[in-house]
Amino acid sequence: MRTTDDPTAPTPEPAARRRSRYKTRAAIQQLMDEHGSQRRRFCGHTTGGSVQVRHTPGAGGLRGVQRCGSVWLCPTCAATIGQHRADELSKALDTWRADPSHDVVMLTLTMRHHQGHTLAQVRDAYRSAWRAVTSGRAWTRTREAAGVVGYTRSTELTVGANGWHLHAHVLLFLDRPHALTRLAVEAFAMSAFDRWAAKLVAAGLPRPIASSGGLDLRAIREGGADGLATYLVKMAAAADDATGWVEEDSHRLPRAGEPGRTAGQQLATEAVRADLKAGRRENRTMWQVISDYLAHGEVSDRDIWREYEAIIPGTQMLVWSRGLRAAIAALTEDLPAAELTDQQVVDRDREGTTLGMLDATAYGHALRVAPDVIADVVTAAGAATPAEALVGVQAVLARYNERLDAEAAPQYLRLHLDTDPARIHRLDEGFRRLEREHATT
Ligand SMILES: [Zn+2]
Description:
By secondary structure, the protein is α+β, with helices and mostly antiparallel strands. The chain contains 16 helices and eight strands. The chain folds into two domains: 32-66 and 344-440, no CATH class; 78-338. It is 50% helix and 13% strand. Helix 3 packs antiparallel against helix 7 (225-237). The protein is globular. The site of zinc ion has 7 residues, from helix 3.
């Protein structure tokens, strides 16, 4: 059962992961009927005209396509948004920790539940428990004592044999070195956990047990911030890898039944499991659930996905406590004080070069029948230089067209990159005009 739960298993290369996201999105869209969200159904489709293939060093992109911006339900948008949030969080962590008097500690709060609880019940309990954590005099008092300036909270959802499982990963930004505040931070965490647990009980859920996974507290090791940010945001967002970080000292509260297993080992396994646990039946991410459904067609998996689809989209995946982001943004040029919405992240038009254009009809056909080819176009467009990118994109298209030849598909379905400078210029102008109009409305 746990055959793929092997920490030494190779991480899939980025191109393979992008292909898988594009294919999964197309498959989800085919499952959706006309009552489903139109934005999600047509995510990736053209806005009407031709599609521009764009290049920036190391990143390819498409312009002229719609994006749904759904961080929970769309694998491609989730990856784009997750990457953006992880980059920002990582900059915030680096900026904060550049000051030797500052520190960051991660607090994880989990829930216990029964299979009988609906996702709506679990989500409501999660929300009210978190409100209880962050309100009242005990919060203010312990927070000041521990030097907690602010926090970010990421929400992670999995589903297992015991039903829905939500937990909160909370990064505590401290204005004094953790070595000095260890006891106060522990007191802060215990107090937070008490309010969390009491509220869950009031909501009808079993009381989580601090010493058996309900509460976890750990410091972050030097150099680990980048991977941590990726883990916190992207693990929830997409089945991407999130390796390469370990924590500093096992400052979590004692946990029974784990002889010989350091917190670091445990954490490393936890951090990589998004990739590794495919095929594991317990605690699957929602991307695994939908992939399992697409692969095996089990009705129970479809039902899990439908419930998730109905309940979860209103939840914010990453939350910054009031004032924290602005405080860190004031310390660096790298982090804008204003946070983009999920939709703004996917719609934002990055600086770059247009390599060429694809015909709308041929593009739309490929997106339906061979979404992995479009994924490969984006990957190839992200080569180091525009010249390499162009060669790479042409090669992907040539392979695809050979396939169409073999299938004797109609000529108009062939994908050709139109690199005519005058036409590219005209289309660029059109996009710029649209953006200006968009910006003024
Ligand atoms: Zn989307």
